[in-house]
Amino acid sequence: MSRITLVTGGMGGLGEAICMKMADMGYEVATTYSPGNSKVTAWLAEMKQKGYTFRAYPCDVASFESAQECIAKVVKDMGPVDVLVNNAGITRDMTFKKMDSTNWDLVMKTNLDSVFNMTKPVCDGMTDRGWGRIINISSVNGQKGAFGQTNYSAAKAGMHGFSKALALEVARKGVTVNTISPGYIGTKMVTAIAPEVLESKILPQIPMGRLGKPEEVAGLVAYLASDEAAFLTGANIAINGGQHMQ
Ligand code: CAA
Ligand code: NAP
Questions:
Q1: How many A from CA of 91 to the centre of ligand 1?
Q2: Residue 64 and residue 113: Cα distance in Å, rounded?
Q3: What's 68's domain CATH number?
Q4: Contact predicate 143/244, CB 8 Å
Q5: What pLDDT was estimated at residue 244?
């Protein structure tokens, strides 16, 4: 029987590549989308045309109740979640001078509280069954900080604190918890940055001189989800074109 993977934000740039890679590796794949996202039917049809059959569930990852309801539906339709990829995330970039509590809270709830909200309903099942993978998609900006991202950098750094603490608690139960910290990847989150900022401030910081590809991150997710990665836990793996060395 194939294992079940749940990817939050699977309709986004990174999430879609992760869903496809996990399906290629033989997992059954479910994803979440924001309630009210009208593109879901078209996206599922587009994926079907490419040979991928995914299930998609509405979920506001920032809400504990919504996460619980979503996971209950996934379990009812597909079975227990074996691999959880906490990928959904947003940016609300502004200097700290301009940062208000609304944009602070929104990013903390969506990028950090979501990790608790989604992991809580699946973690006990994983430890009871003696196998599970929790993979948290953080960011290079959680490791090094970024101008205009006090909210995002704090939330992304917090994700890794969570990974390390939970990894300790479930290490003897066949469950691994890891963080991936991608650098700048060519999705709409990055293409939304003003071109002059991208050209002058960001690309020069990347030794490889290019943005990463979603497929490059998806390959790492697939490895962490595999049986081969059973001894790897509590790690924060940088995948950023060498930016980490700067
Ligand atoms: N480093 C140093 N200085 C910077 C800077 C930077 N990265 N960005 C802007 N500044 C400076 C400007 O040069 C300017 O300086 P002066 O006042 O001396 O002219 C000052 O800061 C104000 O800049 P702006 O006029 O651009 O200010 P703003 O308030 O309109 O916007 C900003 C500020 C929101 C931070 C904007 O510059 C911006 O969007 N920057 C990009 C932020 C970014 O990289 N986000 C990453 C998104 S992708 C992502 O997050 C994925 C991931 O995980 C990797
Ligand atoms: P993206 O294309 O904007 O996708 C983000 C996804 O998150 C979307 O599918 C979105 O779903 C979902 N989402 C946002 N808020 C949500 C909520 N409240 N509830 C449920 N889903 C929600 O961005 P991406 O580049 O693929 O980013 C994916 C993850 O990688 C994020 O956590 C991001 O921080 C991280 N990351 C990205 C980069 C990069 O350079 N791109 C680098 C490092 C880390 P809807 O569209 O349905 O709202």
A1: 13
A2: 8
A3: 3.40.50.720
A4: yes
A5: 79
Beta bridge partners of 132: 175
Percent helix / strand / coil, the chain, rounded to 5: 50, 15, 35
172 Cα: distance to centroid of ligand 2 (angstroms): 31
Told to judge if 152 belongs to the known catalytic residues of this protein, a careful annotator would answer yes
User: Annotated catalytic residue: which of 33, 57, 152, 184?
Assistant: 152
156 contacts: CB under 8 Å, gap ≥ 6: 111, 138, 139, 141, 142, 143, 181
Rounded CA gap, 142 and 158, in Å? 8
> Can you read off the two tokens belonging to residue 26?
């033989």
Ligand 2 centre distance from Cα of residue 124 (Å): 26
Q: Which domain holds residue 54?
A: 4-184+215-239
DSSP string, 45-95: HHHHHTT---EEEE--TT-HHHHHHHHHHHHHHH---SEEEE---------
**pLDDT 10s digits, 61-88:** 999 999 999 999 999 999 999 999 999 9
Domains: count for the chain: 1
Cβ-based burial of 104 (10 A; exposed 0-12, middle 13-18, buried ≥19):
middle
**Assigned domain for 210 exists:** no
CB 123 less than 6 A from any atom of ligand 2: no
pTM score above 0.90: yes
Q: Is residue 227 part of a domain?
A: yes
What is the distance between the alpha carbons of residues 224 and 81, in angstroms, rounded to a whole number? Answer: 15
Find where tokens 């006990």 sit. Answer: 124
Q: What is the Rg, in whole angstroms, of the alpha carbon atoms belonging to the chain?
A: 17
